[in-house]
């Protein structure tokens, strides 16, 4: 059965046999966005990802698509405007996956978080972001910020410590329902515009000729075959492994000086607050966000300085306990315990070393674009170190301006923010969802229907079609699951999922709330195993390999 969507094909031959204008290393949000930008402006573009797309930092975010309110604190207006623009892109071009998120913070005292200060910040923010809803469908529009009295704040946040609370400040940001699908969607948007993208291909080292980079040596991690990929420009977006990659170059390229912070969130098994994300302080002054997401709460983010090789970093029990203690302090009434933790998000972000031992490092505010012709006198290579998922498309625009100049191309007048991501052409998604629900197979439970629409938008019926030859694929994978078997089949047929882990963590949303539902995981393995003709042993191995470890998912 051939679906109507643009299929993602893992085409190693095309990767190896052509000279590409641009070869992107890394399939996180930055690599994906750069690939899309390059393909949309008509460059021949390719991407290699050593594991699966979105398998590293991009799958560990708090899922907030920031509108930049916090940048007012540093009077960083350009960054605020950039965030507003990029949030608008997601709300209007991927409205099935991204929706407004009401947020509340208790107001206190006379300082930065007092009602007058936050009221003034809202006023300035609303003026600066006056075009935040241009072309955004009605149900995805961001209303102005407002202050509410203490009584209302405590109704929304029952169980917080009320001492010193004077009221509440309410504003809206946006939340991604599924960041992994968002990244895969950006990759697919690029492959639909003729780019080549392959997961499980690792960039081993640069190739050089006459003092310029001419491509890379890569390894197909599935066949273990090594091969060369020729490119006029290599763009490395894999910051954690960047130093090693540059160090293996046949021509000398200095590794960039870059420090790292480990950031971490807890995914809790229950919703401790409904309807709002809450910004609450722990006693030692750490601001934590409690974000309701699916039937869970994501809470974070902690931040600690990384000593030594960033590739060796792992999450320790002590770090989890420390964050949990802060979380309990920040929201005492929620009575959060270790058993509530379904999963941990952790990833590395660029940062500078804290001035005092034990203090939190300062996370980098701006992305870095390293032009190695200027830094090292070596043409053919650019490195990118990104700082936010929200602004990756804008980073990609900057990168493409430099890339086009290097390739001697004139950029066409194209605004990639006007093009919808796959499934995003819904018009107003709530209107679209209501109409689609009347056409759904009647046997599907409401939760499964909702999940299908939020994940696939206009492409929901292509997922349903994969069940034509086996109607049982319309059933949820278990009694509690909102995932249907057809999603797993769609993932391997159309979205380049190669392993059970890809399907569970980065295509269907089955594992991103934790691995509690083992029955659903087993059913998922069986469905994929049948489709891909895996042996019983392979199915068992794939299931045994599944891990919720943030550095090994
Ligand atoms: C806990 C946490 C919470 C966050 N919350 C938010 C948030 O709410 N909102 C927001 O906007 N941002 C947030 N961020 C920041 C955001 O997640 C990151 O800035 C972003 O995901 C980084 O994406 P990237 O593409 O640069 O890196 P990555 O996602 O790490 O992608 C790099 C990719 O390169 C691949 N790679 C590495 N070496 C090679 C090689 N040799 N060959 C091929 N591929 C290779 C890796 O496997 C990886 O997939 C958060 C970050 C963390 C850690």
Q: Give the mean pLDDT.
A: 95
CATH superfamily of the largest domain: FAD/NAD(P)-binding domain
Q: Which distinct ligands sit in these coordinates?
A: flavin-adenine dinucleotide
- Quaternary organization: single chain
Q: Tally of extended strands?
A: 18
Brief digest:
With 553 residues, the chain is an alpha+beta fold.
Write up this protein.
With 553 residues, the protein is of the alpha+beta class. It has three domains: 12-58 and 180-254 and 376-418, FAD/NAD(P)-binding domain (3-Layer(bba) Sandwich), CATH 3.50.50; 258-363, 2-Layer Sandwich (D-Amino Acid Oxidase, Chain A, domain 2), CATH 3.30.9; 429-545, Helicase, Ruva Protein, domain 3. Helix content is 32%, strand content 23%. The protein is built from 17 helices and 18 strands. It has helices at 12-17, 29-40, 77-93, 115-128, 150-156, 179-192, 242-247, 317-330, 372-375, 392-407, 429-437, 446-456, 460-465, 485-494, 500-506, 518-532, 536-545, and strands spanning 19-25, 45-48, 64-65, 98-108, 146-149, 165-176, 196-198, 201-209, 212-220, 226-236, 259-268, 277-281, 287-293, 296-305, 341-352, 362-363, 368-371, 381-385. Strands 3, 4, 5, 6, 11, 12, 13, 14, 15 and 16 form a ten-stranded mixed β-sheet that branches. A hairpin with a 2-residue loop joins strand 13 and strand 14. The longest helix has 17 residues, at 77-93. The two termini are 30 Å apart. The model has no long low-confidence stretch (mean pLDDT 95). It binds flavin-adenine dinucleotide (FAD). Residues 25-31, 48-51, 55-58, 60-64, 66, 202-203, 237-238, 241, 245, 263-265, 300-301, 345, 347, 349, 386-390 line the site of flavin-adenine dinucleotide (FAD).
């Amino acid at each position: 059965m051939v679906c109507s969507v643009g299929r993602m094909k893992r085409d190693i031959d095309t990767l190896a046999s052509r000279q590409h204008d641009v070869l992107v290393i890394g399939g996180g949000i930055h690599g994906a966005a750069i690939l899309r930008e390059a393909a949309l402006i008509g460059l021949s573009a390719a991407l290699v990802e050593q594991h699966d797309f979105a398998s590293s930092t991009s799958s560990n975010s708090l899922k907030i698509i920031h509108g930049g309110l916090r940048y007012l604190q540093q009077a960083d207006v350009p960054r605020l405007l950039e965030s507003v623009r990029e949030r608008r892109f997601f709300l209007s071009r991927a409205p099935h996956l991204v929706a407004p998120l009401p947020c509340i913070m208790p107001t206190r005292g006379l300082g930065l978080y007092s009602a007058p200060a936050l009221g003034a910040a809202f006023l300035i923010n609303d003026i600066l972001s006056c075009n935040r809803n241009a072309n955004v469908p009605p149900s995805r529009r961001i209303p102005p910020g407002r202050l509410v009295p203490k009584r209302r704040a405590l109704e929304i946040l029952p169980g917080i410590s009320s001492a010193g609370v004077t009221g509440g400040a309410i504003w809206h940001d946006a939340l991604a329902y599924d960041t992994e699908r968002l990244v895969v969607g950006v990759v697919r948007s690029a492959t639909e515009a003729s780019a080549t993208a392959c997961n499980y291909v690792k960039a081993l080292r640069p190739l050089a000729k006459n003092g310029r980079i001419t491509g890379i040596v890569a390894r197909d991690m599935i066949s273990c075959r090594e091969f060369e990929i020729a490119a006029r420009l290599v763009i490395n977006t894999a910051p954690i492994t960047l130093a090693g990659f540059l160090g293996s170059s046949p021509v000398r390229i200095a590794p960039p000086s870059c420090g790292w912070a480990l950031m971490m969130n807890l995914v809790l098994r229950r919703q401790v607050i409904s309807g709002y994300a809450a910004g609450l302080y722990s006693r030692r002054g750490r601001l934590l966000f409690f974000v309701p997401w699916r039937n869970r709460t994501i809470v974070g983010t902690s931040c600690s300085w990384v000593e030594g090789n960033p590739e060796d970093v792992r999450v320790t029990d002590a770090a989890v306990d420390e964050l949990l203690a802060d979380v309990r302090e920040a929201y005492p009434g929620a009575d959060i315990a270790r058993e509530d933790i379904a999963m941990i998000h952790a990833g590395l972000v660029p940062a500078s070393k804290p001035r005092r031992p034990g203090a939190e490092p300062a996370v980098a505010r701006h992305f870095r674009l390293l032009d190695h012709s200027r830094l090292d006198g070596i043409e053919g290579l650019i490195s990118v170190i990104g700082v936010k998922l929200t602004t990756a498309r804008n980073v990609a625009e900057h990168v493409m301006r430099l890339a086009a100049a290097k390739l001697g191309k004139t950029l066409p007048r194209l605004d990639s923010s006007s093009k919808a991501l796959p499934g995003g052409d819904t018009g107003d998604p709530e209107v679209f969802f209501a109409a689609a629900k009347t056409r759904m197979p009647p046997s599907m439970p409401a939760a499964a229907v909702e999940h299908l629409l939020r994940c696939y938008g206009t492409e929901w019926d292509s997922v349903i079609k994969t069940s034509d030859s086996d109607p049982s694929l319309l059933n949820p994978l278990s009694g509690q699951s909102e995932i249907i078997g057809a999603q797993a089949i769609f993932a391997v047929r159309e979205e380049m999922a190669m392993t059970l882990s890809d399907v569970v963590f980065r295509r269907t949303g089955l594992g991103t709330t934790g691995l509690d539902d083992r029955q659903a995981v087993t059913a998922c393995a069986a469905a994929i195993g049948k489709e891909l003709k895996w042996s019983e042993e392979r199915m068992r191995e794939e299931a045994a390999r599944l891990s919720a470890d943030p550095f090994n998912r």
